[in-house]
Structure to design on (118 residues):
């Protein structure tokens, strides 16, 4: 049976989510990528709460001109700054079925540069 690109990504996402989970001490850094924007959030799966979030829709990021991958790195740094303000240093990275490549990798690298450990 052939699957489309999004169905295959969704299957990978569900498979990975069965293995990783975020907690208050070590939340899950989830990345969602659309054609124009990228979103990242820190999620405590035990409580079902989003602890911090950042996206390319925010004015701070929108004002910067550059490539999408540069924008994604800025989002990673912004999310790391918000996490550190809440005394969160360690996270579990959830690439949500996307390849660890391009903008997804840029978010991870930006978050690491910002001080998050994973």
């Amino acid at each position: 049976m052939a699957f489309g690109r999004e169905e295959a990504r969704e299957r990978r996402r569900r498979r990975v989510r069965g293995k990783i989970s975020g907690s208050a001490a070590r939340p899950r850094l989830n990345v969602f990528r659309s054609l124009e924007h990228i979103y990242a959030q820190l999620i405590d799966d035990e409580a079902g709460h989003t602890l911090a979030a950042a996206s390319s829709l925010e004015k701070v990021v929108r004002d910067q001109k550059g490539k999408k991958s540069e924008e994604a790195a800025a989002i990673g740094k912004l999310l790391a700054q918000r996490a550190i303000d809440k005394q969160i240093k360690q996270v579990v990275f959830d690439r949500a079925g996307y390849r660890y490549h391009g903008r997804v990798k840029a978010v991870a690298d930006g978050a690491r540069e910002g001080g998050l450990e994973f």
Notes: The longest strand covers residues 38-44. The domain at 5-114 is CATH 3.30.420.100 (Nucleotidyltransferase; domain 5).
